[in-house]
Design a protein that fits this description.
This protein is of the alpha+beta class. It has 4 helices and 5 strands. Helices cover about 40% and strands about 25% of the residues. Strands 1, 2, 3, 4 and 5 form a 5-stranded mixed β-sheet that branches.
Length: about 90
């Protein structure tokens, strides 16, 4: 399964978390990325809507990994937290 950003539904930031509407072709998912996870990926970069759009594939990969492990949330959500980003970066090398 591969998650991709849903056409016409750009990611946005609300309450310090990023919300990335994604789909696997069968199910529409909302990937919610915590502020800490955003900062782990962004480093010193400013987190903006454009940055979020440019990095949505990365967060989709992390969310897909969590889905493969059965770690989805309620109502087709996947929460990406700081430890998820670190674990995914360790796996990818």
């Amino acid at each position: 399964m591969t998650l991709f950003i849903r056409p016409g539904m750009p990611p946005f930031i609300m309450d310090e978390n990023a919300h990335v509407p994604m789909s696997d072709g069968e199910t529409d998912w909302l990937v919610i990325v915590t502020r800490e996870a955003l900062e782990d990926k962004a480093g010193a970069d400013e987190i903006s809507p454009n940055w979020l759009l440019e990095n949505s594939d990365f967060f989709g990969e992390v969310a897909n990994y969590k889905l493969q492990l059965g770690r989805e949330g309620e109502e087709a959500t996947v929460w990406v937290q700081s430890e998820d980003v670190k674990q995914w970066q360790d796996i990818r090398g």
